[in-house]
Design a protein that fits this description.
Blueprint: E1 12-17, H1 20-31, E2 39-40, E3 43-48, E4 77-79, E5 107-109, H2 115-122, E6 127-128, E7 137-144, E8 150-164, E9 170-171, E10 181-193, H3 198-212, H4 220-232, E11 242-248, E12 251-255, H5 272-276, H6 279-290, E13 294-299, H7 302-315, E14 325-326, E15 343-348, H8 352-358, E16 362-366, E17 371-374, H9 387-398, H10 404-407, H11 417-447, E18 454-455, E19 460-461, H12 463-469, H13 475-481, H14 485-495, H15 501-509, H16 512-519, H17 529-533, E20 587-590, H18 600-620, H19 626-642, H20 646-659, H21 666-674, H22 678-686, H23 688-706, E21 715-716, H24 726-736, H25 742-752, H26 762-780, H27 786-789, E22 800-801, E23 805-807, E24 810-816, E25 820-825, E26 830-836, E27 840-850, E28 853-862, E29 869-871, H28 877-897, H29 900-920, H30 925-930, H31 934-941, H32 948-953, E30 954-958, E31 972-976, E32 992-997, E33 1001-1006, E34 1011-1012, E35 1017-1018, E36 1024-1029, E37 1034-1039, E38 1044-1048, E39 1053-1058, E40 1065-1071, E41 1081-1086, E42 1090-1095, E43 1100-1106, E44 1114-1118, E45 1121-1125, E46 1129-1133, E47 1139-1144, E48 1156-1162, ...
Parallel strand pairs: 11-20, 13-15, 13-16, 14-15, 19-21
Antiparallel strand pairs: 1-3, 1-10, 2-6, 4-5, 7-8, 8-9, 8-10, 11-12, 16-17, 18-19, 22-24, 23-24, 24-25, 25-26, 27-28, 28-29, 30-58, 31-32, 32-33, 33-34, 33-35, 36-37, 37-38, 38-39, 40-41, 41-42, 42-43, 44-45, 45-46, 46-47, 48-49, 49-50, 50-51, 52-53, 53-54, 54-55, 56-57, 57-58
Helix pairs in contact: 9-11, 11-15, 18-19, 19-20, 21-23, 24-25, 25-29, 26-29, 28-29, 28-31
Subcellular location: Cytoplasm
Keywords: Cytoplasm, Guanine-nucleotide releasing factor, Phosphoprotein, Repeat, WD repeat
Main location: cytoplasm
């Protein structure tokens, strides 16, 4: 595991070429005239790898246990030169001119590097002794081990003259001698690194070659070793807005950091493929890679092979190539192309014919000519990417600005080379950012809707349904891609809910209307009228968004309707930078100058200088710039760890929890903790902060080891082959994607097992599934005349269409949408509206005489028409009767409870009824379908009407658990106001509603439209107890696991934690600054009675004390004093923690096991209101004199007070109540704070009210416990 301690920039440096003995033999051959420019075999002449400095004794003679030069403890493979006689190294005097290593020495190289292959790769077109000098050249290598780990190499080839004397003595770069004959030999210096810093390492080698050419040959090996040691001292920057810069004269070298934790280092010029290929060819190459073809890049330039192929690996992110990747093949390695697996390889163009003749299914990509062809033909025979994604990509690519000279043609010439290089890097960074967005948008356009066909609970992908949803022209492409390893890995990441660049751009690209699909309703997949309209009218590019800062008008029915299906992504307005792209300038940190001699003392001084500079940078950084601070702490922790200052390193990494825990190096820290000597371990255990860190690192390490090595399995949905009991049936239906709600599936099980043993046989399940999918497909093919479309809303879908029947208004087909019934007349196409579901007064079945028969007839009576609508539906009459009654009941429930989900649930029940009847095809089918008539039965069991006061006050309800299989408790709600001047890329300026569900899940709603704004944010695994907005950028959440999680309210990401509490965090309070120079303080309490005072800007602990109460539950600042609500009392506490006043439980509640539950304080009236966990009453004290008799307010039908808030002149109280039937009910009481009277009693939820929050005193939002799990939005008067 020691290999996880990060190395520096350099992993190894090798020198390859021809030994002096071999050069002598070549010279003799040339003198005899036996050849010109002979091809010779290269040898490994030098290998340099860390550690370069050994441990030394300190001045007092004690041995210091210090690691040096970024050395690692990983085992290395030895490579011994095999020659007939031992070769000696260069002597210090320089008398021996043989730059080779002694045969007794082991060449220490990384374990995954094959030196035999490396010799061929460093000289891919062979090594020749020439009569003319050649220019220096560079190319790049990639090595992959059996586990898929990559190592990267940069090779510099340079020519050195060799002088021959007639006595066969050899002198290189020596003084002029008589009768000389000159030849040139090529050496390769290969720098190997774990990180693909191609440009930076090329610059390093360029700088080194300038120095090497002016030095003596006797110093050659020492100079290479010194260069290698310097490279090993360069730390790798963590992901984020900080690059590392170091001086390697004459250049300043910059190491770019990763843009994202999930991305590799990207030190490439991503515009190179766009200079070599047209957009169409780029798409063909991407398509070949996505379909895992055997791809061969060809070029006459070895450097292009790696750089261009690596660019395409970046373009397909977050998909990762899983097969052999060898961008450079020497002539001896061409047989690799015969491999029977998918691969990406590269070779010289001169081998084109040889490669093309060997195999028939190669994709040949000529970089120099910009062509893509097959080895069997000159054309590209594979399917293209989907058309919409293709058109969008080509459009974006045409707008790219790819020529640096054009951008700087009006700029002044720069005299300083480093200034010029910095300007070029800045331009390249900008171009790369745009190209990354273009390529990521392509991947999102291709695979975005894959997520809609995933079942996260059972880790199933319904590939057949996904294919059915694609355009027919795209089926060939998707069929090939869906069976690949890279797509399987992509699915695994989606099921693991990885928050990577793909996820973030997917969220950015979706419009607010699309987000409403996941927020308010989940409709079965049917085409909306808008989708049908697109057949006739081209929609405008983009959709309107609410940009206002105020709260929405909830009377606007457009906000509450069923959402439309997302339009083609090719039509979406493009944002130039996704949330994963840096939105601010990149900072740089310059390393100290490298130590001149390779000695232990100087290396330690270098580390000390580096730590000192990082400490200065930390003290000089703004506390608000936590992202930059985190990178400084990371680098200082890294340097401290390799310098042997382990405890200091632990302290630095501990600071990441308060700055940016996203870059927390868990593996490295685990190695560091395990390497602690006994004395240092004891010292760390005596420090509470380090003890907690060590404990958590060990816990996370154990949890990581318990996780599946492959990241979890991914299953494809398949129909069952054996009988299904209830549990298996629920799982299968959820996997199919038909419905997720367990209660609905259980009713479906009852319907399919009517009159038989309680298990569903595979044939019945298959018939039901196929009928459901056929009905879904039939609705996709509905072709309504334009005259009909004019009468329907854009978001309406036709869910059911009858056969042609005779009605009281002519012959036609009855159509059902989620809002209405209408008749599609035959003959001359026409539209007749039968009724909207909310207007139905009665539905019944009768019979109409026809000759000697009586035909079943459906009669529908409506409020807006006197005559009754009749339809001779014959055999369809019973099922239509059931469906219409269910939709009617669902509509009434939805209107009465202001909850559109009731209508959606009724619609799902209706479609399941239809599928049950269609699949059973028996006399019991109608009776079976009645098992699904949930709302029609419910309206007879309980009254559907809502009390008038509740109905008038309630504006709307939201179900945050739509994606779940069962409702989740809404534990906390918090409203944050909008912010002017905040861009859409920075989180948007609209107000937000934060909703904490069970098990640490936080949802974010756009409170200007009540639509879900982001995917859920996971903050731990425990229940969340409290939430506080401390400023415009920080949201603090107290958890049962004793942590305070800090969410960035703009980026909606949790990357900070406060871990000082020992018990569940139950309360948070904020003390505003009294003036511009004072600190903002926050207070937190935990159930172990401790209170911690925090400096909000630095997140440092300013004070800590304990309060003498049982189970503190909440805090509030009042008149400069801290009030704490405990189970047994209310305390007024001074800043130093001493108790000022105490309010005990009233005498009549002393036997209450839980005591106080909540409290409120008012400045203007000096009142203290308190509620109780075991009593349905409130007590009010006068703050000025707590000894005065308190006022008791009884709450009717209330058994417990859960929460309270103040809104204007009212007190809103959330309670646990009971209905007259004895069922649990969540009630809200609205009280007048001056009269102490109940003004309103609201029947809020079907379970207790867990939380209340105010939205700018215009609305109150309530969250219910698990049995209800909904959010109510209430109007404030």
């Amino acid at each position: 595991m020691a290999g996880n301690i990060p190395s520096g920039l350099l992993e190894a440096c090798l020198v390859l070429g021809v030994s002096n003995e071999r050069l002598k033999d070549i010279h003799l051959t040339q003198l005899q005239g036996k050849g010109k420019e002979p091809l010779v075999e290269a040898e490994v002449l030098q290998v340099h790898a860390p550690p370069f400095v050994t441990k030394e004794s300190s001045s007092n003679g004690t041995q210091q246990d210090l690691d040096s030069a970024f050395c690692r403890g990983q085992r290395r493979r030895s490579f011994k030169k095999k020659r007939d006689r031992p070769l000696s190294t260069i002597s210090d005097s320089g008398q021996t001119n043989e730059p080779v290593v002694s045969g007794s020495d082991d060449l220490s190289v990384p374990q995954n590097i094959d030196l035999i292959a490396l010799l061929q790769l460093c000289f891919p077109d062979g090594l020749r002794i020439t009569n003319e000098s050649r220019e220096d050249s560079y190319h790049f290598l990639v090595f992959t081990d059996v586990f898929g780990n990559q190592t990267h190499g940069v090779v510099a080839q340079y020519c050195k003259p060799v002088h021959y004397q007639q006595d066969n003595g050899i002198h290189q770069n020596s003084q002029q001698l008589k009768k000389l004959q000159r030849l040139y030999t090529t050496f390769s210096i290969c720098v190997i690194s774990k990180y693909p810093y191609y440009n930076a390492l090329r610059d390093c080698l360029s700088s080194f070659l300038l120095q090497l050419k002016t030095s003596r040959m006797c110093d050659f090996e020492e100079q290479v070793k010194e260069f290698s040691a310097k490279m090993a001292l360069v730390p790798i920057p963590p992901p984020g807005p900080l690059n590392v810069v170091f001086n390697l004269r004459p250049f300043l070298i910059e190491l770019p950091s990763r843009l994202d934790v999930d991305r590799p280092v990207m030190d490439l010029d991503l515009h190179l493929p766009f200079l070599c290929f047209k957009p169409k060819q780029i798409l063909q190459i991407i398509s070949s890679i996505l379909m895992e073809q055997r791809v061969v890049f060809l070029s006459t330039n070895w450097a292009k092979l790696t750089l261009v192929s690596e660019c395409f690996m970046v373009f397909i992110h977050p998909l990762r190539w899983q097969h052999p990747f060898v961008p450079v093949l020497s002539r001896q390695m061409l047989d690799f192309i015969m491999a029977p697996t998918a691969f990406v390889m590269g070779c010289h163009t001169s081998h084109f014919e040889e490669v093309a003749e060997e195999l028939d299914d190669l994709v040949l990509i000529d970089i120099d000519k910009g062509t893509v062809s097959s080895s069997t033909s000159n054309r590209f025979d594979l399917p293209d990417v989907p058309l919409t994604a293709k058109d969008c990509f080509i459009f974006r690519a045409k707008g790219l600005q790819l020529h640096y000279d054009l951008d700087v043609c009006d700029a002044a010439s720069r005299s300083d080379i480093n200034d010029q290089r910095a300007h070029r890097r800045q331009w390249q960074r900008k171009v790369n950012s745009v190209i990354l967005n273009v390529s990521m948008e392509l991947i999102v356009n291709i695979f975005s809707e894959v997520c809609d066909f995933l079942n996260y609970e059972h880790r199933v992908f319904n590939s057949e349904e996904f294919l059915r949803s694609r355009e027919m022209t795209d089926h060939t492409f998707y069929k090939k891609v869906l069976d690949t390893h890279i797509f399987h890995s992509f699915l695994r990441d989606r099921l693991n809910q990885r928050n990577d660049a793909f996820t973030r751009m997917q969220l950015n690209i979706r419009s607010s209307e699309s987000r409403r699909i996941k927020t308010l309703t989940v409709s079965p997949r049917r085409p909306t009228m808008e989708a049908i309209n697109r057949k006739f009218v081209q929609p405008e590019n983009g959709l309107n968004r609410r940009l206002g800062m105020s709260m929405p008008n909830l009377a606007d029915h457009r906000l509450l309707t069923v959402p439309i299906r997302q339009t083609s992504m090719g039509t979406m307005t493009f944002q130039s930078a996704g949330s994963w792209s840096p939105s601010r300038p990149i900072k740089t940190f310059k390393l100290p100058d490298f130590p001149p001699p390779l000695s232990y003392q100087y290396v330690q001084n270098y580390y000390n200088d580096l730590i000192r500079d990082l400490s200065k940078a930390i003290s000089g950084a703004s506390p608000d710039d936590s992202a930059l601070l985190a990178r400084y702490y990371y680098l200082r922790g890294l340097v401290n760890s390799v310098a042997g200052k382990r405890l200091d390193a632990l302290t630095d990494f501990q600071s990441l929890y308060k700055t940016d825990m996203e870059i927390f190096p868990a593996e490295m820290l685990n190695v560091l903790v395990e390497s602690l000597p006994v004395e240092e371990r004891k010292t760390a255990e005596r420090r509470p902060d380090l003890k907690r860190l060590i404990s958590r690192v060990k816990r996370e390490s154990d949890r990581e080891r318990a996780r599946p090595v492959d990241g979890g399995s991914v299953k494809r949905f398949k129909l069952p082959k054996k009988h299904l009991h209830m549990e298996d049936f629920v799982r299968r239906v959820q996997e199919s994607g038909i419905v997720r709600d367990q209660g609905t599936i259980q009713r479906l099980f009852e319907a399919l097992t009517v009159g038989q043993q309680k298990q569903v046989d595979p044939e019945t399940f298959c018939f039901f599934y196929n009928f459901w999918k056929e009905s879904e497909g039939a609705s996709q093919d509905v072709d309504l005349p334009v005259v009909v479309l004019e009468h329907l809303e854009t978001d309406e879908c036709v869910y059911k269409l009858s056969s042609s029947v005779k009605t009281s208004h002519g012959v036609g087909k009855i159509a059902m949408t989620q809002r209405r019934l209408f008749l599609l007349t035959e003959g001359r196409p026409g539209y007749f509206e039968i009724t909207k579901f909310r207007d139905i007064e009665d539905v019944k079945i009768s019979s109409a005489p026809f000759l000697l028969l009586r035909i079943p007839t459906l009669k529908i009576k409506t409020s807006h028409r006197k005559e009754t609508f009749e339809a001779n539906l014959k055999s369809e009459c019973d099922v239509w009767h059931l469906m219409i009654r269910e939709m009617w009941a669902g509509r009434k429930m939805a209107d009465n409870h202001k909850d559109p989900q009731f209508m959606e649930q009724a619609l799902t029940n209706v479609l399941l009824m239809d599928a049950v009847v269609g699949s059973l095809q028996s006399q019991k089918a109608i009776f079976a379908a009645t098992k699904l008539a949930y709302f029609d039965k419910k309206k007879h069991e309980v009254p559907t009407t809502v009390p008038e006061t509740t109905s008038e006050t309630l504006k709307h309800k939201i179900n945050p658990s739509l994606d779940q299989t069962a409702p989740q408790a809404v534990d906390i709600l918090l409203y944050t106001p909008g912010q002017l001047g905040v861009s859409e890329l920075d989180g948007g300026g609209n107000p937000k509603l934060w909703c904490a569900l069970s098990d640490g899940k936080v949802l974010v709603f756009d409170a200007a439209s009540w639509t879900m704004q982001h995917n859920s944010v996971q903050v731990g695994k425990s229940r969340l107890n409290c939430m506080l907005a401390v400023n415009q950028q920080q949201l603090w959440i107290g958890s049962k696991d004793s942590f305070i999680y800090i969410i960035n309210s703009r980026s909606v990401s949790c990357n900070k934690q406060l871990m000082e509490h020992r018990g569940a965090v139950t309360g948070l309070a904020l003390e505003e600054r009294t003036d511009r120079f004072s600190q903002t303080l926050a207070y937190s309490c935990s159930e172990d009675s401790s209170v911690i005072v925090w400096d909000v800007s630095t997140l440092q602990v300013k004070g800590q004390f304990r309060v003498p109460c049982v189970r503190p539950q909440s805090l509030q600042i009042h008149n400069g004093m801290l009030w704490c609500c405990g189970g047994d009392c209310l305390l007024e506490v001074r800043r130093n923690g001493t108790v000022h006043r105490k309010v005990s439980l009233p005498n009549h509640l002393l036997s209450s096991p839980r005591g106080f539950s909540s409290f409120l304080l008012f400045n203007e009236s000096e009142q203290l209101w308190a509620g109780f966990a075991d009593a349905g009453e409130l007590c009010v004290w006068h703050c000025r004199d707590l000894n005065k008799p308190f006022i008791r307010i009884q709450l009717k039908d209330c058994t417990a007070v859960v929460c309270m808030i103040r809104v204007k002149n009212q007190i809103w109280v959330g309670c646990h109540g009971r209905s007259p039937e004895g069922k649990t009910r969540g009630k809200i009481y609205v009280l007048n704070k001056d009269r102490y009277t109940v003004e309103k009693e609201l029947m809020a939820h079907e379970d207790s009210v867990q939380t209340l929050c105010s939205a700018e005193d215009r609305y109150v939002l309530s969250g219910a416990a698990r049995a209800d799990g909904k959010i109510g939005i209430w109007k404030v008067e």
